[in-house]
Every structure is written in C-alpha cells, then in structure tokens.
C-alpha cells in the first residue's frame, strides 16, 4: 500500500512538472513583452516547405516605437497569414536582452526559420551561433547585425540607411543654399539606422561648410522623446539659433514639431524640418506646412521576407543583401501623394 502511494506520488510530481514545463513553454512563446502574441496562419495547407510540412517562423521584432514599426509588423503578420505560415511574433520593446531571449525561445521551439530585426547592431553573434548550431536559418530584417561570420545569417532585407541620410542632407543643402544651423534627433543609440543615417547626412555636411549640427541627441525613434529633446534644445543657450531640424525618423520629427509650436515658433518656416520614413502623419504635416521633407523608408517588406523564408526552407542560397526601393517627398508632392500612403 505504502509502495502504491509512493508510486502515485511520484507519478503526480512528474505530471505537475510536465504541466509546469509546458506552461513555461507557452509563456515563452508570448514573452518579449506587450504585443508579443503568437500569430498563426489560417490554413493547414499552403505555407509548406514543398514536403507538405507547414512552415513555422519565429519573428523577433524590435518593438512598437513608431508608426513605421507598426506598419512593418502588420506587413509581416499579414503576409504570413496570407501564405498559411505559422508566425510566432515577439515584441522586444526596444530591449536587446528581450530579443536575445525571444531568439533562444524560438530555437528551443525548433521553428523552421528565425527572422530577426536587431534592435542594435552589436551583441547578437553568440545567439546567432546558437541558431546555426541548432540548424535554424536566420534572416535579418530591416536592421543589420554586425557579425564576424556572414554564414550566421542567410540574407539581410532592408533599406539603405546611409543613402536615406544622404538624401535628407542633400535635400536640406538645396533648400537652405548650403547654410543651416541644425539640431539633430538621432535614433536609438547603436542601432543600424541611427548610425548610418547620421553617416550619410554627415557626408553632405562635409561638402557644405555652411551647414553645421549644433546640437544632437537621441530621441529613441519615439514621438514623446522627440518632443522632450526638442523642448530642451529650444530652451538651451543656442536654441534661438536653430533654423533646421534633421530627425532620424518621422515620429521624432512630429513630436519636435509640437515642441516648436509650443515654443511659439513656426515649424516648416522658422525651423525647416526634414525627416525619414514617409508615414501618413508626416505627409499630413507636410500638407499642413509644418514638415518640409520626408525621405521614404519602406516598412512593407512582408512579401520579400516570406519569399526569402520559402526559398531558405527549400534549401536555396540567397544574396546576402536585398535592398528596398524608396523615394524622397517634399511639400510640393505631399497633397497628391497623401491618399496613396499605405502606412
Ligand atoms: O529601422 C527602421 C527605423 O526604425 C524606422 O525609421 C523608425 O521609424 C523605426 O523605429
């Protein structure tokens, strides 16, 4: 009898442990903070690897910091659903440690492919090595990760951020005849777009001695921070001298526009505003005369990402880099383009 009780106890402990492990597993699918709900494709057919097996993709997204990011997440979620691919979606809330945790969880769940949009460029090599050791291919989306070995990822699909910064600088040089006292709102420190957009813009400044960045700080790609930092810029001793603002994304520019108005100045006139992304609200701000120019950065890369996923699953080799085509829009084109904006 005592032996039976012991066996029963052991069995229930084992069952409890099993439930706890399964519970942990399903929680880790939804870890990564708010919005990290796993999304599944609607059909059991399609999304196959050719062998009839349904594809499962783990997507480690940066966060939900901007309108651009929201559009990017939606493009990827919609495309997965359209193709019947199971998508495990993780939102890292702009925290690298959350993203690394998400990638490890995808490895543990043995997904077929991991798509990673790295928050910052450095520090991902160890976890990419873990994915490689587990035989799970990784596709880099939107932002680059600095790695010493290119075999750690299959392809990088994203914009040319240096060119975007260059385009913003060239537009401003033309608008101001090469003379501008500039405040700069940088993106997230250490992120690919913040580094490269600064670099491309600086190339133009190097050719125009009359254009100077007099203050520069991060606004972390958010509207709230953009406003906060611009308020501080305007209140600083040299604040009155600023006649141009370069923001690494539209959300920060839109926040800064509010700060400029609250300081009693006219954005778009007293301070020329140029930014990057091309989101709907930026076009509206151009129509309203408050923003002067936005350089397009296209977030709608879901179809390109899943074309790559399907090729990788079939064992095809991809080019290491796939660029996204983009344009530049100023106030003169804003009203005509506004109805066409999809993000
Ligand atoms: O990596 C792309 C950038 O990240 C977008 O320009 C910005 O809006 C986003 O947060």
Explained architecture:
By secondary structure, the protein is of the alpha/beta class. It folds into two domains: 56-158 and 300-324, 3-Layer(aba) Sandwich (Rossmann fold); 161-297, 3-Layer(aba) Sandwich (Rossmann fold). Helices cover 44% and strands 17% of the residues. Strand 8 (244-247), helix 8 and strand 9 (272-277) form a beta-alpha-beta unit. Residues 1-46 have low confidence and may be disordered.
Mass-distribution shape: elongated
From the N-terminal CA to the C-terminal CA, the straight-line distance is: 69 Å
CATH superfamily of the largest domain: Response regulator
Give the neighbour order of strands across the main sheet.
Answer: 2-1-3-4-5-11
CATH class of the largest domain: Alpha Beta
Topology summary:
Layout: H1 2-29, E1 56-61, H2 67-83, E2 86-91, H3 96-108, E3 113-116, H4 125-133, E4 138-141, E5 155-158, H5 161-175, E6 180-186, H6 192-207, E7 211-218, H7 223-235, E8 244-247, H8 250-262, E9 272-277, H9 280-287, E10 293-296, H10 302-313, E11 321-323, E12 328-330, H11 331-337
Parallel strand pairs: 1-2, 1-3, 3-4, 4-5, 5-11, 6-7, 6-8, 8-9, 9-10
Antiparallel strand pairs: 10-12
Helix pairs in contact: 2-10, 3-4, 5-6, 7-8, 9-11
The structure holds alpha-L-arabinofuranose.
Alpha-L-arabinofuranose binds next to helix 2 and strand 9.
């Amino acid at each position: 009898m005592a032996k039976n009780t012991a066996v029963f106890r052991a069995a229930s402990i084992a069952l409890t442990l099993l439930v706890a492990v399964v519970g942990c597993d399903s929680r880790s699918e939804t870890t990564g903070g708010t919005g990290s709900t796993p999304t599944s494709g609607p059909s059991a057919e399609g999304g196959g690897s050719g062998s009839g097996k349904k594809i499962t993709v783990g997507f480690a997204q940066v966060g939900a910091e901007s309108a651009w990011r929201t559009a990017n997440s939606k493009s990827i979620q919609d495309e997965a659903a359209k193709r019947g691919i199971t998508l495990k979606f993780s939102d890292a809330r702009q925290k690298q440690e959350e993203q690394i945790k998400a990638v490890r969880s995808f490895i543990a769940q043995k997904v077929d492919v991991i798509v990673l949009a790295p928050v910052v460029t450095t520090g991902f090599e160890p976890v990419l090595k873990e994915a490689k050791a587990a035989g799970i291919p990784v596709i880099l989306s939107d932002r680059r990760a600095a790695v010493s070995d290119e075999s750690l990822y299959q392809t990088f699909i994203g914009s040319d951020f240096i060119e975007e910064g260059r385009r913003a600088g060239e537009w401003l040089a033309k608008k101001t005849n090469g003379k501008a006292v500039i405040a700069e709102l940088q993106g997230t420190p250490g992120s690919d777009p913040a580094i490269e957009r600064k670099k491309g813009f600086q190339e133009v400044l190097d050719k125009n001695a009359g254009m100077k960045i007099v203050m520069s700080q991060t606004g972390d790609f958010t509207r709230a921070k953009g406003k906060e930092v611009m308020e501080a810029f305007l209140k600083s001793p040299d604040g009155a001298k600023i006649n141009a603002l370069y923001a690494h994304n539209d959300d920060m520019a839109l926040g800064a526009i509010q700060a400029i108005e609250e300081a009693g100045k006219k954005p778009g006139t007293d301070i020329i505003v140029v930014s990057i992304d091309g989101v709907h609200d930026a076009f509206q701000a151009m129509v309203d005369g408050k923003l002067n120019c936005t350089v397009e950065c296209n977030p709608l890369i879901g179809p390109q990402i899943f074309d790559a996923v399907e090729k990788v699953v079939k064992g095809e080799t991809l080019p290491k880099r796939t660029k996204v085509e983009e344009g530049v829009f100023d106030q003169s084109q804003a009203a005509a383009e506004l109805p066409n904006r999809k993000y």
